[in-house]
Specification:
With 560 residues, the protein is mainly alpha-helical. It is 81% helix and 0% strand. The chain has a domain of 195 residues.
């Protein structure tokens, strides 16, 4: 039994779709724990000041993690480690020790500075908070500054576990991270109050790191504090990672600025923004991130060999399947938004008003799910081709569009009541308070769609046009998704009289059967249209994807 388990862990990938589906499966497991985490938080606190403080305190530690850990990310370190291992284990160890020492010194220094400046950072970033809220935000922030240290080291250690082919171990790390947060809600919060939530985050980060330590000890590759006299290679690592680090940081800075803006929009705005963000991240993680990560090694190898035609063909195949899966997800999330939010979050202190407002925010986020997914693929394709500046510039432009949109929408909705009423009526929340926070997800989606459009234009200029099948998939998926959404909407009304909508189970079953019915209609439409992806998916599952090797996701690009 044990032997079979290790054979399962170390199997080689047999294809793009097999790897993507396995990535999606493990992403789904992590997201399910994320659902439980968010449900507990929503049930305990509702969309109010407590969750606003909790999510606000996250932002600075997350930014530190992204900025520091992406410098030693998997896609950066693995090529260097592979090269050093060819020179011998001693060379690989010296390189790893130097990177570990430099990284730990850097992140520790940044953490100390952030710890000392936490009260000023909280006041600067969240001007809408009261003095009491700012004090608690700074306190939680200081505790959570341990998180980027643990996650950053875990990210560094993951490069070794990947090279040692221990993919399953790293795959479960995000699951353990969410488990730590859940323990914080269940056990630490009743004992310590809000600071217990912060310690739960720290526990999750520690578990994320700790599961990899035994592997490093067994392989004899546990890093030690030792600075190499040759800083040229360290400098090379930094130069390679810098554009990618800046691009990832820009997205995190954008979310930080939107969170700061949310502090001015009333209690609960930050909580609703983050809860709806987590929900919309599910299809993005399962579809967009899975295909982009699965395609990256193949794309990099093809570009290195000069096989640009196959490069574009492989990218087109990944893009077709992203469109195929993400368009139905977009429509279902919009049509079933209330059922999704109520099922996942609707309990305890999270009332019906919180549900409706979060559902409206989810719908606005969902509009850009397709754009976000294809942007992830385009970004990876540029990295595979060694062109890291284009994603950086597009990330900068997208951030500017998002932030400017937030201010413009704020002015528009304040000065022109009709514009605000139109959006509220469209999302059926005109009778609720706090609807001004909807400019946050709306602005984010505008920035994401603009970025995807620019990516598409520049890609056809820098490489070549996609295969004709991409256009066919787009229109087939678009048509079937619209019909599917209409069918799901009709079924919602049919099941109104079938299930008890005053219970979570009744709402879940209404959404489930409405969604399944809509999917059946959508699949039938695709079959009648002779859709290519339906046949490819069938062949993929006949390849026994559970025998494919798992590629661990890069935590700097993972939504936990």
């Amino acid at each position: 039994m044990v032997k079979r388990l290790f054979q399962f862990i170390e199997r080689e990938i047999s294809g793009l779709h097999e790897a993507a589906y396995l990535l999606g499966f493990f992403a789904l497991l992590s997201q399910l724990l994320g659902f439980l985490r968010d449900r507990l938080l929503a049930s305990y606190f509702g969309a109010g000041e407590a969750l606003d403080i909790y999510y606000a305190a996250f932002r600075v530690p997350d930014l530190i993690f992204i900025w520091s850990a992406s410098m030693v990310s998997l896609s950066v370190l693995i090529p260097f480690l592979s090269r050093k291992r060819e020179e011998g284990k001693a060379a690989a160890r010296e390189f790893l020790d130097s990177v570990f020492s430099a990284f730990f010194a850097f992140i520790l220094l940044v953490g100390i500075v952030a710890f000392l400046m936490a009260p000023k950072l909280a006041s600067l970033l969240f001007p809408g908070f009261s003095a009491e809220m700012l004090s608690m935000t700074a306190y939680l922030m200081r505790i959570m500054l341990l998180q980027p240290i643990f996650l950053g080291l875990s990210n560094l250690f993951a490069s070794i576990t990947q090279l040692e082919r221990r993919f399953f171990i790293y795959a479960v790390s995000p699951i353990l991270y969410n488990l730590g947060i859940i323990i914080g809600v269940f056990f630490f919060f009743p004992l310590m109050g809000l600071q217990g939530l912060a310690w739960g985050v720290v526990l999750g980060a520690f578990l994320h790191l700790g599961i990899q330590v035994p592997v490093l000890l067994r392989t004899g590759m546990m890093p030690r504090f030792r600075f190499s006299k040759d800083f040229a290679l360290i400098r090379e690592v930094l130069l390679v990672s810098l554009p990618r680090t800046l691009a990832l940081s820009l997205q995190n800075i954008t979310v930080l600025l939107l969170t700061a803006f949310g502090s001015l929009l009333g209690a609960g705005s930050i909580a609703i923004f983050n809860l709806s963000w987590n929900l919309q991240s599910v299809p993005l993680s399962i579809v967009g991130a899975s295909y982009s990560i699965a395609a990256f090694p193949t794309l990099a190898g093809l570009w290195t060999k000069g096989e640009k035609g196959i490069f574009v063909s492989t990218l087109s195949a990944a893009l077709r399947h992203i469109l195929f899966w993400s368009m139905p997800a977009l429509v279902l999330f919009v049509v079933l938004r209330a059922q999704i939010v109520r099922t996942v979050l609707g309990s305890g202190a999270f009332d019906w008003s919180d549900t409706r407002l979060t559902a409206a925010a989810l719908a606005l986020f969902a509009v850009s799910v397709v754009a976000q997914s294809i942007s992830l693929l385009f970004t990876r394709s540029y990295y595979a081709a060694g062109k890291s500046r284009t994603p950086l510039f597009i990330a900068l432009g997208g951030a500017l569009v998002t932030v400017c949109s937030a201010f413009l929408f704020s002015e528009l909705f304040t000065r022109e009541p009709f514009a605000r009423y139109f959006l509220e009526s469209l999302l059926r929340v005109s009778d609720l308070n706090g609807t001004l926070m909807l400019i946050l997800p709306l602005s984010y989606s505008v920035g994401a769609i603009v970025s995807a459009f620019v990516f598409w234009i520049l890609y056809t200029r820098d490489f070549q046009k996609f295969e004709s099948g991409v256009s066919s998939t787009f229109w087939q998926s678009f048509a079937s998704s619209i019909i599917m959404g209409f069918a799901s909407y009709l079924l919602l009304n049919v099941f109104n009289a079938v299930f008890d909508l005053h219970t979570t189970l009744g709402i879940f079953l209404q959404g489930l059967f409405s969604g399944l019915g809509g999917l059946a209609v959508g699949i039938s439409v695709l079959y009648l249209l002779g859709n290519l992806e339906i046949r490819e998916i069938w062949r993929t599952f006949h390849h026994k994807i559970w025998k494919a090797k798992f590629i661990g996701p890069d935590p700097t690009e993972t939504t936990f």
